[in-house]
Amino acid sequence: MKKVLFGLVTVTIVALSSCSKDKTVQPTPGGGGSKPPTDTPVTTTSYLTLAKETRSFITNNFLTSSFSYRANTTTHSNNCYEWYNVSQIYADAALVSAGDASALPYMNKTFAFMENFWDKADLRGGYFASVNLDGTGAAGDKFVDDNGLTGMVYLEAYDITSGNDKQAYLDKAKACADWLINSGLWDSTYGGGFWWNTSKPDKPTQSNGVAMQLFARLYTITGETIYRDWAVMVNNWLRNNMMDSATGLYIWKIDGAGAGTKHTEKFTYDNAIMIEADILFGKATNDASYLSKAQALGNAMNSVLWNSAYKGYIFNTDPTQTRVNPAWCGWGTQGMIRLYEQDNDAKWLTYAKNNIDALNKAARNKDTHAYYFFSGFAGNDRSPEIEGVDQAWMQRIQAMMSKYE
After folding, report:
1. Which of 272, 141, 147, 127 lies closest to 207, judged by CA?
2. Minimal CA–CA distance to 305: which of 261, 252, 361, 237?
3. DSSP label at residue 103
4. More confidently predicted of 405 and 27
5. Mean pLDDT across 72-79
6. What is the CA radius of gyration of the chain?
7. Which residue, 215, 309, 226, 317, is CA-closest to 268?
8. Distance from CA of residue 188 to its chain's centroid?
C-alpha cells in the first residue's frame, strides 16, 4: 500500500504502489483529545449522496473500457495498480450494501479484470502490483499487504453476492491466503512475521494485520484449521513485536540487519487495520477478550492519533508532518464503524463521522468532487495528484457511514 510516485516506468513496475506508506510520504502533527468530539458533524448533503458523487467522478475520470481504473489523473494516468483497483471493488461493495445496486456490475467486471494481475507462471499464484490499463504487462514484486487486502475485499463481495459470483469471490480470497502461506515471505527473521514484499525490505504492521484479518475471516467461513493456525501465528507475532505498551498502539515496521530496527511511528491506518483484525480474530477463536482489545486500541487511537482542533485522524505521529491523506486517514473511519457494529457505542460513530467531515474540508474539491492526494487539515497545501485509491476510500467510508445517518 505504498504510493510513491516515480518518474521512471521501469522503477514503477518494480517498486510502486503497494498499500504501504514510504518514509518520503508522511503525516500530520500530533493529535490528542481522548474524549469524543461533542459537536454534530456538519455535512451539506447525505453521506450516501456524497458517496454517489464520488463514484460519478471516478466513473468519468478513472474507469477504462476494460473496467480497470487509472492510478491517477496526472503522472500515472496510463498505469493500473492492484490495490487501487481492489479498493474500488471495496468501495462499490459498500455502495451495494448501502442500497445502491447499480454498483454491482462494475464491481463484478473489475473482479474479472483482476485476473490480469495474477501470476500464472507460478503455481503459487499471487497478484502483481501493476499492469497496463488493458491488463497486459504484469510483472515485478508481489506484496503481502496488497494480496491480504484483496482477499478481504473479495470476502466483502462474497457477503453481498450469490450463486457462481459468490463462490468465485470466496475461491479467489482463499487463493490470496494460500499464496501468503506458500509465498516464502514468512520466516524466522525478527522472530517471524511476513515481509512486505518479495524483495524483503522490512516487516510492517499493516502487511501482517491484513493477513491476520484474512486468515481469521476465512477460518470463520470455511472452518479450515490451517487458516486459524496462521491467524494465531500472525497475531502472536504482532503482539510480541509490534505493540507499543506505552501508547497501546502498533508501531510501523521492523527492518535492518541482525535483530532489526523498530520504527516506532504510529500510523492511523495501521491501527485501524488492527482494530478489525482483533475483532475478526475474537470471532474466529470465540475469545471475547479480543473485542476488549479492539476497544482499547480504538481508545488509544482517539487519544494519540486524533487532531482535536480539526476533529480528524492524523497520518502518523511524526510531529514534523502536516498532511492528511483520504485513504490512509480515512481508514480510521472504517475502524470506528467496525467497533460500533460490535458494541453499539455511539462514540465510535462520532469519531467516524467527524473524520469524514474533516477529510471533506481538507481534501475535497467542492466543484469537481475530487479528493487530493495530500493536503493540510485546513484545505491548504493540496498536492496536484488526484489518486484513484483516495477516491475509492472516500466513496467507501461515506457509503458505510450512510447506513447510520
Report:
1. 147
2. 252
3. G
4. 405
5. 95
6. 19
7. 317
8. 26
Half-sphere exposure of 177 (CA within 13 A, CB side): 32
pLDDT tens digits, residue range 250-292? 999 999 988 899 999 999 999 999 999 999 999 999 999 999 9
Q: Which residue has the cell 491517477?
A: 72
Output DSSP code: residue 345: -
Degrees, nearest 5: CA angle 366-395-146: 130
Look at residue 30 and give its three-state secondary structure. Answer: coil
Q: Which residue has the cell 512475521?
A: 193
- Bridge partner residues of 255 (DSSP): 202, 261
Q: What are phi and psi of 261, to 5 degrees?
A: -100, 130
Relative to beta strand 249-250, strand 79-81 is unpaired
**For the chain, what is the mean pLDDT?**
91
CATH of segment(s) 9-402: 1.50.10.20
The secondary structure of residue 117, as a DSSP letter, is: G
What are the grid coordinates assigned to 247, written together? Answer: 501508547
* CA nearest neighbour of 151 among 230, 250, 79, 77: 230
The DSSP 8-state label assigned to residue 25 in this structure reads S
- Give this prediction's pTM: 0.93
Residues in the chain, total: 405
322 vs 27: CA distance, rounded Å: 6
Per-domain residue ranges for the chain? 9-402
